[in-house]
Amino acid sequence: VHAKALNENLAVIIFDIDHYRDLVNVYGGQRAHAVFQKICAEVSKSISPFDAASRYGLDEIIVFLSNASSDQARAIAEQIRCQIGEWHFPEIEMRVTISGGIAAFPHHGADLHTLIGSASKALFQTQRVQRNAVCSLNASNEMTPPEEIEQEKLKLSSQ
User: Fold this and answer.
1) Crossing angle (nearest 10°) for helices 20-45 and 70-86
2) Which of 50, 94, 123, 127 has a CA positioned 20 to 30 A from the CA of residue 138?
């Protein structure tokens, strides 16, 4: 509502911990939760004090970026994704990665409910194609592929 009234951008990122159920099954709920809490703390540290991050569902984190475009949100999401992927968690002996879906006001929704739905859709489509990636929807509500997939397409088309 605030972004709409002031005609400002607002971006939503939804991160999901890849294979969280495997983490719970192998290491137990307590250790998995400790890993989740560390990831949440890192996400919170990686955003501006004017932005917000919160747990969203069992293994998801929702991030609201004030006055951020889709491209800016993607850059932040990629930075967070890369940081998490490089971490070693002493509680477990398993690499943990996250995937993300991005939506931005007004392109992907005129209200918060629609924006969150668009970010969820982008996340779902991301995970269908590839884990440990971040995607957004384009103007036609189709997935904009992760950069790695785009780079592979460029390599193939140039051969």
Assistant:
1) 120
2) 50
